[in-house]
Specification:
By secondary structure, the chain is mainly beta. About 5% of the residues lie in helices and about 55% in strands. A hairpin with a 2-residue loop joins strand 5 and strand 6. The longest helix has 14 residues.
């Protein structure tokens, strides 16, 4: 028998690593009656939130090369009426690995009723959300945030990643430490309080209905300002700044980019781009 070549040994090692990859899962469903509140925190992991047709909150945690339970990922959860809290705790011990390092991954899948108040935090991972109406707080230290078909008060923060959000807003606050920001405000959106969109490094585009009323304040440290809206200019309009009133003025609409151009555009009043 011919000895196995170095290439063959490498392929065999990869096959063994793939077949020995560990997967684990944790699931729980919480019955609710009114408007539910969900608070979730995880040190690592990607959050995926969607709408459920049932009066319940369903949480599923899926891991790759993480065990759930003793010595691994620990799930702390509790429910008090319509308020549910789920915290994922990762082990702090140092682990030395020899040979092929198997990549670790955690995904948290959540379904909630259409009307729900959410407070979601991940230290390292993305947040994706669709079809929810309520008070929404989405925060990640490192990862992108994408929210579609949302309605109500939306507050988004990412330390490093892009933001894409689309919906009808009463309050809109977006902050990105490093990444582009794209926001689309649909028909019926209004400034119940001032809106603020900020990125330290990246371009920004905000699309609003034609009838949105606001006092507009736009500044970019390195980029240009572009708009197709009939803004009544207050003071000078420089290459990096714009101040004025939109549809007679209203609460402040503040757009800031440390390094990137800013585009303020109209999407009409029908809610379609």
């Amino acid at each position: 028998m011919r000895p196995m070549t170095a290439q063959g040994l490498c392929l065999l090692a990869l096959l063994v690593a793939a077949t020995s990859a560990q997967a684990d899962q944790w699931t729980k469903t919480y019955a609710v009656s009114g408007t539910p509140e969900l608070r979730m925190e995880t040190g690592d992991g990607n959050l995926h939130v969607s709408r459920s047709e049932h009066r319940e909150i369903a949480v599923r945690v899926e891991t790759r090369n993480w065990t759930i339970g003793e010595g691994g990922l620990r799930v702390e959860e509790r429910q008090n009426g319509d308020r549910v809290e789920v915290f994922l705790h990762f082990p702090h011990r140092v682990h030395f690995s020899f040979g092929i390092d198997r990549p670790k991954r955690v995904d948290i899948w959540v379904q909630v009723p259409r009307d729900a108040n959410l407070d979601l935090h991940t230290a390292d991972g993305s947040i994706e959300l669709e079809g929810i109406r309520g008070d929404l707080r989405l925060d990640t230290s490192d990862g992108h945030v994408e929210a579609d078909d949302v309605d109500g008060n939306v507050r988004i923060h990412t330390g490093d990643g892009h933001v894409r959000v689309r919906g009808r807003f009463d309050i809109l606050e977006v902050r990105s430490g490093d990444g582009r920001v794209e926001a689309t405000a649909l028909a019926g959106s209004k400034l119940a309080a001032g809106w603020s969109l900020t990125t330290a490094d990246g371009s920004m585009e905000l699309v609003v209905p034609k009838d949105l009323a606001a006092d507009v304040e736009i500044h970019t440290g390195d980029g240009h300002v572009d708009t197709d809206l009939p803004i009544t200019i207050a003071g000078r309009w420089g290459g990096h700044d714009l101040r004025g009133r939109l549809n007679g003025g209203g609460p402040p609409l503040r757009l800031r980019s440390g390094d990137g151009s800013i585009y303020l555009r109209t999407g009409g009043t029908s809610g379609s781009l």
